[in-house]
Amino acid sequence: GQNIDQPTEMTATEGAIVQINCTYQTSGFNGLFWYQQHAGEAPTFLSYNVLDGLEEKGRFSSFLSRSKGYSYLLLKELQMKDSASYLCAVSPAYTNAGKSTFGDGTTLTVKP
Amino acid sequence: DVKVTQSSRYLVKRTGEKVFLECVQDMDHENMFWYRQDPGLGLRLIYFSYDVKMKEKGDIPEGYSVSREKKERFSLILESASTNQTSMYLCASSSLGDSPLHFGNGTRLTVT
Q1: How many residue pairs bridge chain A and chain B with CB atoms within 8 Å of each other?
Q2: Of A54, A59, A31, A33, which is closest to residue A45 (Cα–Cα)?
Q3: Does position A54 have pLDDT exceeding 90, yes or no?
Q4: If I label A43, which of A35, B5, B70, B99 is the partner at 20 to 30 A Cα–Cα?
Q5: Which residue of A has its CA nearest to B104?
Q6: Nearest 10 degrees: CA dihedral of A57, A61, A65, A70?
Q7: CB of B25 within 8 A of CB of B32?
Q8: What is the mean pLDDT of chain A?
Q9: Do B45 and A99 make contact, defined as CB atoms within 8 angstroms?
């Protein structure tokens, strides 16, 4: 099975940098997704890491260490619209990515 | 852009009623999924389908069934609604392999 941990809540200031961590313990692993979910809206895809290392996509970057069972999402130059829940999801090996196991999400509040 | 449409944003049903939640996607995706999202429990997979008329149980299928008669449509059925099925229900679709999920806006179901 899968066990995923991420902080419940974080607060940061507009313009700052914030790192949201995700640790996982899994019996099989293919890759790790990050999704963003604004209140009352659908989750939307942010990133997918399969290999170790950092992947950068504009203001957002995602890091993966397979050996440590660890990932983080880095948000730079924070904006008010980045206030949302961030979901980490582990994609299991040898099966469909839709069978990913999701963490409970980290609610990020960006303050002026 | 992929569009996943859920027929209702809000539903209120009585205990014992049969409830149908409908989901339609417009991108010819093979895979479709039903999740429920509850505070503190994250997103949990109820059922998924990888082809027309094919279905597979997720992590919490009890009390639910599904139907996929056409590729673009995936229905979730609560045979006899109970109060513990009060939740946010999210439909998602994806193409083959390790593709990210595209979610609908969700249906908030209240069973009284």
Answers
A1: 59
A2: A33
A3: yes
A4: B70
A5: A42
A6: -140
A7: yes
A8: 92
A9: yes
**What is the nearest CA distance from A48 to chain B, expressed in angstroms?**
8
Q: How far apart are CA A87 and CA A108, in angstroms?
A: 11
Q: Do B36 and B88 meet the contact criterion of CB atoms below 8 Å apart?
A: yes
Mean pLDDT of A1-30: 91
Q: Which of A43, A48, A100 sits opposite B103 (nearest CB)?
A: A43
B84, pLDDT greater than 80 = yes
Confidence band of A99 (pLDDT split at 50, 70, 90):
confident
* CA–CA separation, A46 and A1 (whole Å): 24
Partners of residue A38 in chain B, C-beta under 8 Å: none
Contacts of A50 in chain B (CB under 8 A): 98
* Residues of chain B contacting A98 with CB distance shorter than 8 Å: 31, 33, 45, 48, 92, 94, 101
**How large is the average pLDDT for residues A39-48?**
92
CA distances from A21 to A35, A60, A112, B61, B110 (A): 13, 13, 23, 30, 33
DSSP letter (8 states) at residue A103? P
